[in-house]
Amino acid sequence: MEGLLLAEAVRPLEGRLPLDRGPWRFPDERTAVLPLLGPGSGTGEALWIFSRPPSPWLALRPGGAAELASSKGAPARTSFQEQLAARAVGRLEAVRQRGLDRVVELAFGAAGGFVPHAPVTLVVELTGRNANLVLLDPQRTILGVERVILEERNRYRELKPGIPYRPPPPYDKLDPREAGADALTRTLEGQRLSRVRSVLDGVGPQLTAALAAGCDLQPDTRLEGDALARVVDAVRELAASPAAWLERAGGVPDLQAQRRSDRRQRDVRQLESACRHRLEVTGKRLQDIDRALSRAEEAGRLREEADLLMAYPQKAPQGAARARLTGFDGHLRTLDLDPRQDAFGNARKRYDRARRLERRAERARRERPTAEAELRAAEEALAGVHELDDAALRERAAALTSAGQRHARPAGPGVRFAGPHGFEVVVGRNARENDAVTFRVARSRDLWLHVQGFTGAHVVVRSGGKEVPFDTVLFAARLAAGFSPARHSDNVAVDYTLRKNVWKVKGQPPGAVRFSQQKTVYVTPARDDAAAAGEKEASAGDGGERR
């Protein structure tokens, strides 16, 4: 909200303060309404504060406590709204605007009662995309803030509870309310009309556009001669009554309509974001399904190799790393072997691998129609979002949420999977998230897993103090292998131990840990909770370090 418009909005309160007021009302999470009571009456006006970027505003409108008390359907209050309603309970003592800044301070007096309330000041910052509300104590220390701003986001000033309030930096511009024609002429001469707002205080893009429309000039017009004289006269008239000037120029928005428009834009953005996320997730799921289907042909080759090993066991003795056998089609075949196994052990591994690939392909065939339907639903939801009315917008958002519900994950660090026997498995996706999963999410008796010999995900099985069944260990190990550079391998070693055996050495980078008392399993990597089939445990290790 531009400074001149803000000054005009609060001007009706001058000379009437202090004012009794009714209880705060909050139609939504970024709107606060303060009923102001007329003398000797329960009716009056209400001060509306809308702080949602990028178009915040403040307005004094008819209708007081009686009208607002009858309104229903207000959402749950935010924590800042609860604090505002509990602390700003005294009379409205003063309304202050520094020059033509887009900042207004509402001073509330002390209040008695069973629990006395100290005076507080509500700072209303209507500064476009940085709009905010800040509650101060008498020493101007921040008690609460609608949107916390930390140093990494704004180096000039922080806004968080417990620190002194620092206002936005002031502007060194000419105040058009106090300047005469000569001062305005000297300031504006030679400027382009679009640059008026850079030299006049309280004038922003909305009033600048209204000036151009009211003077019938183009925004890039250089202010000289007749054009300069017309704009100087217009600025003096605009400074006296900016809202009336805007109305004549067709620029005064309906505040309620603007609020509805802002809410709709937010809903559209949220629906578009949800659609694109659903498209991305479903697209990756279809890629996994296609990969599983393409690897089904490998199962036939593995079964044929296993049949050859069973037919000619003498040609693949234990200790051999390779065997050359004549296939059933008469062609010579070279088979890679596990030297720790004899011919029958190597055949069994191939049969097991073939069965897993076939099961995975069968699941993929069953899941593909559902995934394709979800993809089409997301594409349809994204198409024509801007043409939907409000009811259809909400309906489509609900439908999309319902379609994706089966794949929704709880909030918090890491990807969450539902493991066998109801155990939750949490997988970190980067170094910092690995630290969070291991040292914030996991408890001492939870199971911790990491792929051996590679960087990769920290995986935690949340045991709740119970013993974790071995098929759950295998399930989590496949995810650890799948979320690592070894995800394209077949026989991946994964270490596991209790979380209490994992520690971090001071000075190590994010994600780097050490652990002990681990055991090892060899598994086939997986990246979804449908992939679960076991391989056998290996011997315990002697310690290690992983990232």
What are the defining features of this structure?
547 residues; alpha+beta; ibrinogen binding protein from staphylococcus aureus fold; 5-stranded antiparallel beta sheet
Question: What does this protein look like?
Answer:
- This protein is an alpha+beta fold.
- The protein folds into four domains: about 5-145, Roll (ibrinogen binding protein from staphylococcus aureus fold); about 180-250; about 295-405, no CATH class; about 415-545, no CATH class.
- Helices cover about 35% and strands about 20% of the residues.
- The chain is built from 13 helices and 20 strands.
- The chain has helices at about 5-10, 65-70, 80-85, 180-190, 205-215, 225-240, 240-250, 255-295, 295-310, 345-380, 390-405, 430-440, 470-480; strands at about 25-30, 30-35, 45-50, 55-60, 90-95, 105-110, 120-125, 130-135, 140-145, 320-325, 330-335, 415-420, 425, 445-450, 460, 490-500, 500-505, 515, 520-525, 545.
- A six-stranded antiparallel β-sheet has the order 12-13-15-14-16-19, with helices on both faces. Strands 5-6-7-8-9 form a five-stranded antiparallel β-sheet, covered by helices on one side. Strands 1-2-3-4 form a four-stranded antiparallel β-sheet.
- A hairpin with a 6-residue loop joins β2 (about 30-35) and β3 (about 45-50).
- It is elongated, with a radius of gyration of 34 Å.
- About 35% of the residues are buried.
- The model is unreliable at about 65-70, about 405-410 and about 530-540 (pLDDT under 50).
